[in-house]
Amino acid sequence: MKLEGDYRFDAAVQDVWDALFDPAVLAAALPGCEKLDLVDGAYVGEMTIKVGPISGKFTGKVQLEDKVEPDHYRMIVDGRGPQGFVKATAAIALAADGDGTKLHYDADASIGGKIASVGQRLIDASARAITKQALDNLHENIKRRVADKAPAYKQAEAGDMAKAVAKEVGKTLLPAIVIGVVAVAAIAWWLLR
């Protein structure tokens, strides 16, 4: 089975890259994912997958290779369960796309066991639907992460701006206050003589 496509994220390349390597983010994004851990550089997890009338729990391992941050990497997937198995390789590439990021994926997979008996068209449709749902979920998660970072950045920026304004005001206001105090003192001295 061949699965290839593009997806656009409304976030910078580094934000997308970071999310793709965060097990908590991936676990939340993957439909049916019950567990995902990073163990010795590989992701190990459990998922419940449904393809047509057949569903089952799969355990799997995803090994990452040829990683060049933040441009591309390759995944080697090995998943097994009572309903069958899946072995796949996938190339993932990220590129800036205006103010967002374009992710390109190209995967080849072999599927066997009961799950393969449902037919190629149903498997293709299910794989595309699961991929789209996972990418949509990932996109929402990335947008939330970026939004959570933005207020802190804006607060820091506002704090820096307030300090700069205070400094400038101090430069102009302090001499005015000194001149005012001296003038009042001079007037008081003149009136009281």
- How large is the radius of gyration? 29 Å
Q: What's the CATH class label?
A: Alpha Beta
Note the run of SSEs as H and E. Answer: EHHEEEEEEH
Span from first to last CA?
102 Å
Low-confidence stretches: 168-193
Q: Strand count, sense and closure of the main sheet?
A: 7 strands, antiparallel
DSSP summary, beta strand count:
7
Q: What's the CATH H-level homologous superfamily?
A: START domain
| Helix proportion | 40-55%
Explain how this protein is built.
By secondary structure, the protein is α+β, with helices and mostly antiparallel strands. It has one domain (2-148): 2-Layer Sandwich (Alpha-D-Glucose-1,6-Bisphosphate, Chain A, domain 4). Helices cover 46% and strands 40% of the residues. It is built from 3 helices and 7 strands. The protein has helices at 13-20, 23-29, 120-192; strands at 2-9, 33-39, 42-51, 54-68, 72-81, 84-97, 100-112. The chain has a 7-stranded antiparallel sheet, covered by helices on one side. Helix 2 (23-29) packs across helix 3. It is globular. The model is unreliable at 168-193 (pLDDT under 50).
